[in-house]
Amino acid sequence: MASRLATSLAGIPLRNPVLAASGTFGYGREYAGLVPPACLGAVITKGTSLEPWPGNPPPRTVETVAGMLNAIGLENPGLAHLVEEDLPWLQSQGATVIVNVVGRCVDEYVEMAAALDRRREVAGLELNISCPNVDKGGMAFGSHPETAYALVRAVRRRTRLPLLVKLSPNVTDIVRVAERVRDAGADGLSAINTLVGMAIDLDSRRPVLGNVTGGLSGPAIKPVALAAVWRLAAVGLPVLGMGGIWDWRDAAEFLMAGAAAVAVGTATFARPRAMLEIVAGLEEYLECRGLKNVSELVGEANPTFRASG
Amino acid sequence: MELVGASVLTHEALGAGYHRLVLAAPEVALQCRPGQFVHVRVSEDRYPLLRRPFSVARRGDGTITLLYRVVGKGTALLAGLRPGGCLDLLGPLGSGFELLPGRRAVLVAGGAGIAPLLFLAQLAWETGHPVRAVVGAAQAAELVGTADLGELGVPAAYATDDGSLGHHGPVTDLLEGSLAGEALYACGPPAMLRKVQTLAREQAVPGQLSLEASMACGVGACRGCACRAHGGYRMVCTDGPVFDLEEVVLDG
Ligand SMILES: Cc1cc2nc3c(=O)[nH]c(=O)nc-3n(C[C@H](O)[C@H](O)[C@H](O)COP(=O)(O)OP(=O)(O)OC[C@H]3O[C@@H](n4cnc5c(N)ncnc54)[C@H](O)[C@@H]3O)c2cc1C
Ligand SMILES: Cc1cc2nc3c(=O)[nH]c(=O)nc-3n(C[C@H](O)[C@H](O)[C@H](O)COP(=O)(O)O)c2cc1C
Fold this sequence. Notes:
The complex is a heterodimer. By secondary structure, chain A is α/β, with parallel strands linked by helices. Chain A has one domain (7-56, 72-198, 216-308): TIM Barrel (Alpha-Beta Barrel), CATH 3.20.20.70. Chain A contains nine helices and 16 strands. In chain A, helix 7 packs across helix 9 (274-289). The longest helix of chain A is centred in the last third of the chain and has 16 residues, at 274-289. The model of chain A has no long low-confidence stretch (mean pLDDT 96). By secondary structure, chain B is an alpha/beta fold. Chain B is 19% helix and 35% strand. In chain B, the strands form three sheets. In chain B, strands 4-3-7-1-2-6-5 form a seven-stranded antiparallel β-sheet. The longest helix of chain B has 14 residues, at 114-127. The chains are: A alpha/beta, B alpha/beta. Chains A and B meet through strand 5, strand 6 and helix 8 of A and strand 14 of B. Flavin-adenine dinucleotide binds at residues 37, 48, 52-55, 67-69, 71-75, 112, 115, 212-215, 236, 241 of chain B.
């Protein structure tokens, strides 16, 4: 039964270990007719800021081999819209909600966290310090261990909510950033965000994306993401693994590498019901192996995995 | 919005890379309005990854017709689909055209842009709304959908870039003269759409246009298919693809 898949991530109880990755599932409503949000482990919202952000000039996406580049630039309707429209709807659907938080400066992250701290509809926060497509905020905070430390520490002081921190693969040593994020009081790590990439149009002889560079996601990045999760599994915080997950086999690999749960992003664009299929596939796999709970898979392949909490 | 496996009834090559694909998709046929599109998977596995958007070009009894042109790997794969085969299809998606009452509809089509306008012509025919069309393409062989217009009794004028059929020059040349009492419905390349905007503004006639943008989710979740509009960005997939002529700012 479903209990075989029931688990938890950084103190957040989850129906199952399959979450919607930030920015690929909107605020849940966009896919409501196809994916009941309550059937997911959790919905991670689009990166949301205090005020609405307009996003980057078009074109914002381009397909690549087994993947895509995006430079959305964190277009979002802002905190007030989240609180007034999206959270009530998600709650009415019985969804577990993790809010992906972004800001231009430390104060904006802190203010967001403080505003959401008292809200019962929010199960946890995911701090986005890894978006490659904005000048201020995003990756600027995740590139240096000490900047990341200072931000997470400031946010930690203002929220009791479970705090995940989403890490960038575009750094020299992701483990070093993760350790400082841990020291600052984070409850869990999300990895990975997109890899910086670009494409050039031979006809116009210009970069395809309005932002010049974008973030690579989809099946093409899976091996990179898996290796990142493998290394992060030794840090001692629960890891939400993501990057290129397409089917339940990919999800099982991330769990075996040491992820406590997984998030699915780009696959949803091609197969809107991919997450539901992954849930069903994992369930069947556990049953075939005679395992009682998905947690038995976590870290199974990884001798350096350090169980946490 | 439905996610269905639509079976291929007929699939016909029209020449010049154009194809006409008739699909059994009763739920989609029931719901769709002219201007809306379906988002189609062109492969079974991870490459090509993303769905491809196509306008509904005609609606039949439990069927929809797509009219598309092969331009790359996804449409090339689509062209290999045989009758009896199955197409994974999400839709109908997006906004539709709205026939403005009391004004004759002028359909302005460039290339594959004819597709959504044929469905609009069908609606005009079904509701007795007065309509005419101006249709342009690079050359005569690329003028498609002309038989549909004939069947629907839509008076049409043609233009080709090389002069091989009809007016020799851009299709918008065929809009010179008074447009009083008319409304413009346009789909085609950006340069054509810009010209249509200018003509409509000069003559103070209303209208709508259908835009294209590279698209990922198709349902408004990813915010990827932004276009410029007065007052900020709009999403082609959910705010559009049909916009008021005056609403969007076309690049170039
Ligand atoms: C709402 C909407 C409705 C559409 N309706 C139709 C239709 O009825 N008939 C039709 O023939 N085409 C239509 N298109 C365009 C069609 O989606 C593209 O031609 C198709 O996605 C190209 O896929 P591909 O894999 O063959 O090309 P790719 O290999 O991906 O690209 C080849 C070339 O096509 C261009 N291209 C790729 N995607 C698009 C796109 N979405 N829009 C414009 N150019 C693109 C690329 O820039 C490139 O130059 C529509 C597009 C949109 C957004
Ligand atoms: C269109 C798009 C928008 C995204 N927006 C966000 C975002 O707002 N915040 C964030 O932390 N990550 C964002 N991401 C990154 C994803 O959450 C995820 O980390 C990444 O895409 C890798 O997973 P995938 O390969 O399964 O898509 C976005 C990704 C895509 C493709």
